[in-house]
Write a structure and sequence with these properties.
elongated
């Protein structure tokens, strides 16, 4: 099999005259979590549909371990597991019935109880799918995606509707999958979750990838990756901010000074000396690090929801 679990090159797809995927290139590596982020309508879900072969691209190529997911769908369906946000599971069946049926479709499935026990499926095994809560359906959908021992798994909002305890169980599953060499493609609206779990992140907006890299790389590449804030006991004078701006890029609002960038110890000392010589007192001082959410909003101009 190919060393890359998923390879997408020059992917295009349109709904009529509306192009929703516009030349996307991405790769998901074995043993790593690829986070796919983007506002609603950015093209994420369509890209995943194209990747698993439920839609045929207008142009470009998709390969799952070297196989085309449309032409070689029987092969790729054994290699890849898919957890979609709407589940796609039979509503009149009970959770363990669903998993046993899915297990029968694979040559070497996981034992059902290896998924049912840690995911707490036994607690509601007697109910049909339509009677489950949203979070309970999510847990069944995750188990369904993993029952065939996939080497590549697509997880679309796997923690939507889960309580904190269940979220941590799912996060543990995701980490363990990557540790076992599985490639994980994770789409999520939770930027903290993406930052914690992803080895690499791609940000999609209007059908194109607008940023890609490890979470730390994206944070550090931002114009406001780190900043120093100093709160004073009185409003910042023009003379003081001019002096500080000569040391490092800085701005002031009321009694707060913001020094941009990642000032080293010498710059911090120089700024503090300037404040002391202005005969004002420092009330608080702190370093702000850019989060992935900050970077996302900076890139797209809109929050992820």
């Amino acid at each position: 099999m190919s060393s890359s679990a998923l390879t997408i090159r020059g992917l295009h797809y349109s709904y009529g005259a509306h192009r929703v995927v516009d030349g996307i290139d991405l790769t998901a590596e074995t043993g790593a979590v690829l986070g796919v982020l983007g506002p609603n309508g950015a093209g994420k879900s369509t890209t995943i549909s194209l990747a698993v072969g439920t839609r045929r691209p207008d142009a470009g190529t998709v390969e799952i371990f070297g196989h085309d997911p449309v032409r070689d769908h029987l092969t790729t369906s054994q290699l890849a597991g898919v957890m979609l946000q709407d589940g796609g599971l039979p509503m009149s069946s009970k959770p363990l019935q669903v998993l046993r049926h899915l297990a029968s479709l694979y040559e070497n499935p996981l034992p059902v109880q290896e998924l049912a026990d840690p995911l707490g499926l036994n607690d509601f095994a007697g109910r049909t799918m339509r009677r489950l809560s949203g979070g309970q359906k999510q847990r069944v959908a995750l188990a369904a995606a993993l029952i065939g021992r996939p080497q590549l798994v697509f997880l679309d909002e796997p923690c939507a509707g889960l309580d904190p305890q269940a979220r941590e169980v799912v996060h543990t599953f995701i980490r363990e999958l990557a540790d076992r060499g599985v490639a994980v493609v994770l789409t999520t609206h939770d930027l903290v979750e993406a930052e914690e779990l992803s080895d690499e992140v791609v940000v999609i907006d209007r059908g194109r990838i607008i940023a890609q890299g490890a979470p730390e790389e994206l944070r550090n590449a931002s114009a406001a990756a780190r900043s120093l804030t100093i709160d004073l006991d009185s409003p910042v004078s023009d003379r003081l901010i001019d002096r500080i701006a000569a040391i490092a890029p800085a701005s002031a609002q009321g009694s707060t000074i913001t020094v941009e960038g990642a000032p080293d110890s010498a710059r911090i000392a120089a700024v503090c000396t300037a404040v002391a010589e202005a005969d004002v007192q420092i009330i608080d001082i702190g370093m702000h690090s850019q989060s992935l959410a900050d970077v996302f909003f900076e890139l797209t101009g809109r929050p992820l929801r």
